[in-house]
């Protein structure tokens, strides 16, 4: 038992019966008959063994044939042709080679945007065998953007060229990109054993410095963006609490469950849309927004009427009751939807990201959430400061008795305000469902952060919550790369504790002379 | 109105009766471990399961009592008492791990290929030093935290949230393997304590009796405090801190004393809890556990001495029962119980009893 | 009146506590079987389906006449993801309910918490989840994978040309013992294969971490240095945000494949699998495995989920720990038949060498000495329907090495179960 047993069989059980001579002959035959490519290629590919399939794809990539384009596009979709029902089994290696081969073929297309995308793909994946073909396309490329992109793809390969002048030109060209791969490629050239020409080595050094600078810019922007994004998520999670806890003074431990209800409403809306209006599936998150607001606000108002109403003026006891509510809501959801997470898919317009720099992609979902968070803050602010309801809410929270004397229906206002806070939490739930998991425990993971944001910002201060959320988000993301996620989080908590020592009422304290 | 309810209840029911009931409960608690020593199969034998269960609940009752001292009397709701409890538990756990490992390193360290103990483990093989740690670790942390918090006059919800952040940070710290406390798994698989086998009935009975003794001592301290001038100042502090200050008192010292005392009591309870349940790990520090402790106090009756004990017993007893009887629905019962108690029994179970007594 | 209510109050807590112990109703001629899985709290997400699987298996065994002519009676308790409660509940199952065997636990810490109880009372626990090894108790049978039955073959696959011939490895995990140990073993293994330390990056996140922006950016940066694979031991709940971030930042499986050890069919139910196509998982069983035993197993489970109206029954899936639970219960039943008794010592003896034709398509054998199953290893690629396409598997079941040879000092460990390890 003290030995590593060599009982495992060698990896790649399919490699047993390969016959290189046979394969070569077949390949040659195939390449000689480009006209018969379309139908024959598909049959030939599916019959081949994985290793032969890989060689085939490599051969196709080096010598593209327009007739094969349809086949390769279909293969990327996991099929062999538009009306071919045979299932294609690919693994990652083949998928990578396929992407490369397809890009090679797409260079032959008349569509410049397609050619540009193909050239970008080839920058990542082109193989030495493709140099001759790329050279030809590069020479004949009419579109300037595609020409430049192809130049880079070619430069990557030319680093290994035998002619120092070609290498030098390639190195200089690579210095102008901000491609993370270029950095590694240039770094290898600094070694005299790899690069014999001193001139090329010096040029590589200069180019490397350029690339590094560009990469650094991308990294810093990326950090700033992720800080903003985390901040916007904290803000959405905390905003509802800023009303129920900040304004009404209810220590609302069930706040997290309002987020969860919002997220589950999103799920239900998604399922319903899928079933009854599949055409509108792309826009289900937009439909989910009012629904989530309504559900969470409804549940919130119900709770306010039945439970919380009796507890005003006893803030610490609301903690107990809302804790009970939270247990009940979690278990109810668990019984209805199951303990497992449910699937909330990102619609097309929220998937993927915006490629800003070669090493900086901003996911659409996160961009949308930042904008959404700011919109919600703005609307809440308008509601509280520019409407009758907002006026009443502020009056009741500042002096309940006085407001009642002036004819403000305090009971109704309490209910509406609690509903508003819960409804906003529901909206937050919709946003959270797009980036994280939707399960019964969703709320529990946000409740502590939410309270910290509200307290740090100053209870009762909407602007405070805004600053606190973004401050925490950015601080967290600045610390994480330096000391890791775990220590970063601990340090943030310690900093919050210290900060509150300094400013016990939070960032934005209510100014007043009231004393008990 | 805000007088300790024990006192009021005692006045109503007559001191003799309360004493008699107290004595009966005490006798029962002392009899329990003795009965567990009877041979297996005897009709009066108390099983190890019952003993550890009641022992665990008693430890929780001490935590509830300690929390009540700061919340019920001084008006400081701590949502971080689980941290002090766990620190005491970890200090005891360190000793138990060293005892189990003998001369070699504790198992989880050999596992991380550490060749020597970190400095803070020094001396933990001695029971006396471990006991000091049980008191010092939570005590010092509470002292430092309390000193700064009370100096800045942090109170109310701010104080609660800060203590919650503190225990959350503690949990994350202890989760890390590099911290040197066994990471997520914490400490388990204890063998012996002071040379006595930890699973033997005798050891269990002694640990149980020690828990009862600690509970009694805490009650006594609480009672003396509540009746003394110190207790009155605390109550005044809770109800009107500013007026108290205008009367010439400096509230900081009072708060700090009761806060540190409460933390130390929690640490001691943790130290007794660990050998009885056989595991200590960071989940004891999770904010939920500390909130639960607050729930025990509120349920039993805040600002009384018996209330927290009743609350801890009720909630945990029900939890143990419900999780077997209604595994899928017990959270509904528990949740509903919390809501109903807050709505209809604002003074907790003790308040109900008192009301009944008045009728 | 006064008197009575006060007496009530004082005895209330004691009597409530006592209720817990009188809650066993002795029914004649059944064998009690304990099921110890969290039905609430953070682990409910994973463990609930194991409880249901255990109940289904017991129902099936009963339908065929039970074991030794006696029906099995399941005792389900909820340890509520609370580790000390696990110990308390197992003591209760063993001493109050007097169950013959317990099927349960998911996390290592819960197993560590109950282990002393099982050793003290000489109980029998079947543990169905892959774990870090470094343990071998005579009172536990491990039906999940040890590291050499999951992690090492997966890395070998990534190194092969077929798997993309990765040169650099990004080890990402949640900060607890299973990922730490697995990564430690993997690092030693990678060293033995000539991978230098600069080509290995190890990163941990806290429990419940949900913001993977920085980490995915780091993976991207790391992967610029050569063909990279990510080995993920990220804990169940954090996987959704991780995979969503991967997809949104445009990191595809063809560029940087992620092989996960805790992501199965059940976890994929909560994710839109389309952007994940091509990422890998290593297990000992996949629902998509094609053989008659598995077809029966899957359809039985779907029918059961529908009949019992389990939440999400229309999308019910099976996964590796569920299969391990199923195999465990059957093996125990076979051993009881062989031993003609439920006595723990006799059953333990009968279990050694016991074999069972499992849904994985292999006949699994319980090792004669080390209490672990011999299991086949499979690597699956995620498909767009949330199922796995098996791209590689061992030819025969692999023997477990709970004491990994890649951890120093383990060569002195005995290859049989000893108490108190």
TrEMBL record, chain B:
Entry's transmembrane regions: 20-39, 46-67, 73-92, 127-150, 157-175, 205-226, 253-274, 294-317, 329-346
Pfam families cross-referenced by the UniProt entry: BPD_transp_2
Organism the protein comes from: Pseudomonas fontis
Taxonomic classification: Bacteria, Pseudomonadati, Pseudomonadota, Gammaproteobacteria, Pseudomonadales
Keywords: Cell membrane, Membrane, Transmembrane, Transmembrane helix
InterPro entries the record matches: ABC_transp_permease (IPR001851), ABC_transptr_urea_perm_UrtC (IPR017778), LivM-like (IPR043428)
Name the UniProt record assigns to this protein: Urea ABC transporter permease subunit UrtC
Compartments where located: Cell inner membrane
Keyword Phosphoprotein: no
Membrane topology summary: Multi-pass membrane protein
NCBIfam families xref list: urea_trans_UrtC (TIGR03408)
Main location (coarse class): membrane
Domain of life of the organism encoding this protein: Bacteria
UniProtKB/TrEMBL annotation, chain C:
Region (Disordered): 402-421
Statement: the UniProt record of this protein carries the keyword Iron-sulfur: no
Composition-biased stretches (Basic and acidic residues): 410-421
Listed name of the protein: Urea ABC transporter substrate-binding protein
Domain of life per record: Bacteria
Signal peptide: 1-27
Pfam families referenced in this protein's UniProt entry, alphabetically: Peripla_BP_5
InterPro entries in UniProt: ABC_urea-bd_UrtA (IPR017777), Leu_Ile_Val-bd (IPR000709), Peripla_BP_I (IPR028082)
NCBIfam families assigned: urea_ABC_UrtA
CDD domains: PBP1_FmdD-like
Source organism: Pseudomonas fontis
Keyword line: Signal
